[in-house]
Amino acid sequence: MRFQVEFDSFHYRIFKISDLKDCLLQILHIVLTKQPGFMSINVNPDEQSIVMRSDICPDIASIATCSTIYRLMKVDLYTPNGGIDEYGVLSELTKKLAHHKIPILLISSFNNNYVLYPLDLHPSVLKMCESSDFYTIN
């Protein structure tokens, strides 16, 4: 077993924002109050978007283009030296998800990798995890 996956109970959306300045106060409030769950702010020349719990800030939802509802899987590695020494984990996981026809979005942070997948496919993801050689935490 090279890695484990962990699920939380929240529902997530991708909020495409035309200008992040329009929601900086809401984002700051979410960060400062340490709301549980995952948040990722992405800025590139083509778009500005936020991945976060779908229930956490209706003000942002009102000014954004919203995606479908997703669930989140955190991928933890079993390695004594941290994830940087491990290779092929995301490839192994994404191949299994693709085999089961589960579309995903990957987000990596300093220490962790996160996989978003459509909420309606959660039972299929759980079944795939149970039949695989990695450990699942719910």
Task: Sum this structure up briefly.
The chain has 138 residues and is α+β, with helices and mostly antiparallel strands. The protein contains 4 helices and 9 strands, in the order ββαββαββαββαβ.
Described by strand count, sense and barrel closure, the largest sheet is: 5 strands, mixed
Radius of gyration: 16 Å
Overall average residue pLDDT: 85
Low-confidence stretches: none
Through-space gap between termini: 17 Å
Question: What structural category arises from helix and sheet content?
Answer: alpha+beta
Give the overall form. elongated
Q: How many helical elements?
A: 4
Sketch the topology as an H/E string, one letter per element.
EEHEEHEEHEEHE
How many E strands?
9
Helix percentage: 25-40%
In percent, how much strand structure appears in the residues?
Answer: 25-35%
In which order are the strands of the major sheet placed?
A: 7-8-6-1-9
What is the topological layout?
Layout: E1 3-7, E2 12-17, H1 24-32, E3 39-43, E4 48-53, H2 58-63, E5 65-66, E6 70-77, H3 89-99, E7 105-108, E8 113-118, H4 122-130, E9 135-137
Parallel strand pairs: 1-9
Antiparallel strand pairs: 1-6, 2-4, 2-5, 3-4, 6-8, 7-8
